[in-house]
Every structure is written in structure tokens, then in C-alpha cells.
Amino acid sequence: MKNHCSQCNPxxxxxxxxxxxxxxxxxxxxxxxxxxxxxxxxxxxxESGFLWLAKSINSExxxxxxxxxLEDL
Length: 73
What we know:
Layout: H1 18-24, E1 29-32, E2 40-45, E3 51-57, E4 59-68
Antiparallel strand pairs: 1-2, 2-3, 3-4
């Protein structure tokens, strides 16, 4: 069984519920994971409370941080 996040598998069968992870994160902390269904690999809550997703680009070693809201997760 592949590991998926709730952004690419919203049916409730996702191993990584991004909304729950985001709500549980303290400011300045992140949670890393490997989603095999999309390019997401980490979620981060900055010191101001904004949420960011790390997305792989072109390879596993290159990431782009994208700001997201709870409604996007």
C-alpha cells in the first residue's frame, strides 16, 4: 500500500492528514513525510502561524516551499 497525503487522496484513506498535522504543529516546527501520490514532502508552520508545504521539483533533492491555507489541505 502506498503512502498518500490528504491533499492528493481526500477520500479519508490518506496516511498523512495534512489538516490534522497542521493543527498539531507548534509555530516554528515542521513535519516531514513521503507522499507517493504527489510531490508533497513536508509541512511547516512558521513563527507567524502561516503554513507551508514542501514540494519536490525535478528530483527528490530539490524542494520548493509553497504557502497554503487550511482550506487547501
